Amino acid sequence: MPVKLDRCVKKVQKQGQDKSSAYAICSKSTGYKVGKGSTKKKKKWVKRKESFKQFFEQTNYYNDTLHPKFWTDDNFNEEVLNSIIEIVDEFIKDDDHITPEMIEDIQLTGSLANFNYSDHSDLDIHILLDFANINKDETIVKRALDGKRFIWNLRHNIEFNNHEVELYFQDIHEPHVASGLFSVQDNRWIKKPVHDPPEIDQRDVEKKAEQFRAEVELMKEALNEVDDKEDLALINKRAKKLKDKLMRMRKEGLAGKGEYSVENLAFKNLRNDDTIAELNGLIIKSYDLMFGEEAVMEKKKKKKKKKKKKGLQAWLLSLVHALFSTDPSHSPKPQRYPSGI
To answer: Is this structure's pTM higher than 0.70?
Structure first.
């Protein structure tokens, strides 16, 4: 079951709904439905296809006010504010390299410090430090702090008003692009957002996002057709490269036209429809298969009538063959590759 759907079902059940009702409610809110080939014992969940226009409208991407459960007349919820400070104190209390005195500020940024929040928004809390005070090699510091942050976010699932807390370390010298920035530590606005609904070409956003979706679908298909270590390494490398490209696209969009750039909105669309989660899953799965040959071979022996995998080159050829025939079973060897392959 998709993680987002599973979390929703558990939350709704805690509110007193039975399992069947919880599935119905969460299927609608998360966009997942039971796919073809499902059985009572094993359900296949698929994401409902929706246009960016639907996504934009249904999530109320740009709101008239700041989130009412966190803000009252531009004042941040005091109970949540104190809890966040307490969480940060707990986060660093056993660290040998960070003391409370080293924290320059604790800041809330992102969509919950702005008008573009949705049900998927996190409370993005940035802990500002001077990395040079920890070690002169700031690259090592960043990697170590990112590791600490990753482990904490992995082990904890703290929420306020159904929005998860995500902690980040940020160097005080690192430029941070945000139209809304609030100091939790000092309980004041650093940069107050201005309500200005953006004009967005939804077609451009959907076109940009679809390029990445298509690539992920191809990699998923390819991964199911290979078991050679070199082929798996190629898929793993390509998946990582695609993720880097995606993150770079978002960064450039934020630095250029900000939160409402085509690049950032495409990124959010891909995050909300779980394409990014699928890409992360591809990276992990291809890596595991690369270094788990014995386990993979053992599983293959146990499965009866296991379909023989084609391999990456044969899989590519099968895609090429499809260009030459409308008959799915037709697979003559083409005389040459089409241009670009």
So the answer is: no
